[in-house]
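User: My notes are a mess, but here's the protein and NAP's SMILES. Can you give me a structure?
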Amino acid sequence: MKITNKRILITGGTSGIGLVLGRKLKQHNNEVILMGTNPEKLLTLRKEGFTTLSCDLSDPVHIEKSIVEIQNKYHHIDILFNNAGVQYNYDLTGQGYPLEKIGKEIAINVTGQIILTQLLLPLLHQSNDPKIILTTSGLGAFPKQDGLNYSATKAAMRNFTVGLRYALKNTHIQVHEFIPPVTDTGMTRDRSEGKMSPKVLVDQIIPQLERGRKVLTVGKMRLFLWIAFLFPGIAHKIIS
Ligand SMILES: NC(=O)c1ccc[n+]([C@@H]2O[C@H](COP(=O)([O-])OP(=O)(O)OC[C@H]3O[C@@H](n4cnc5c(N)ncnc54)[C@H](OP(=O)(O)O)[C@@H]3O)[C@@H](O)[C@H]2O)c1
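Assistant: No problem, the inputs look usable. Here's the predicted complex:
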């Protein structure tokens, strides 16, 4: 079914994949609420006609305040795109990495997403056709060595997605996993090649969501997931 005339909340909506998703879904006559933390980006997006909401996913108190704001304003949410994420690349086995970054990466990529999802369930239940989409990563299927903590957060969210789907199976809420390939955003600014354009990615993902696919991704990532499952040694060579 076409995704149009829906109220859609996108975390990590101020840049990269989330922003491209937001722009595309807005063009399709959806009411898009973009969430992020950067005040300048949020202001610019309001001027572009988006509704925005500041929410720091590393801070549970801030999440709860944002949810109250949403509850006071809206009767329902149709689609929650849990898309925010950070990736701090470092050698965990080396010396001198600031320990608080490990906790922050987990707080944003895992704890914050789970809290937000739980607190939004009542508003999702009020929708006629609610969907939750969780953005994970191929690194959640096979880790990269200079991003072990990031990879672990994405593995956790892959597991959470499957569990949530079963936990909600007697409700009308559909749960989807979105696995971007390496995509050209701020997160991959240090990588020079092999990146997909976020626009090309989003143009492929929205029709998959409309068809109700559970795992939203592109062909080479589907192949990688099988390789990671069946032949971890080959997956290691690909990632390296
Ligand atoms: N790019 C890739 O190759 C790739 C591949 C696989 C998976 N992914 C996943 O795709 C998702 C989007 O990534 P991207 O590539 O679009 O990255 P990006 O351009 O760096 O965007 C990250 C988004 O997360 C938000 N964010 C960061 N810290 C936050 C916090 N404390 N609280 C709330 N929001 C916060 C940022 O908003 P503010 O700046 O406003 O805080 C921004 O909108 C992530 O979950 C990422 O792990 C990306």
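Residues 11-18, 36-38, 41, 55-58, 83-87, 108, 135, 137, 180, 182-183, 185-188 surround NAP (CB under 6 Å).
User: Great, I'll file this with my notes.
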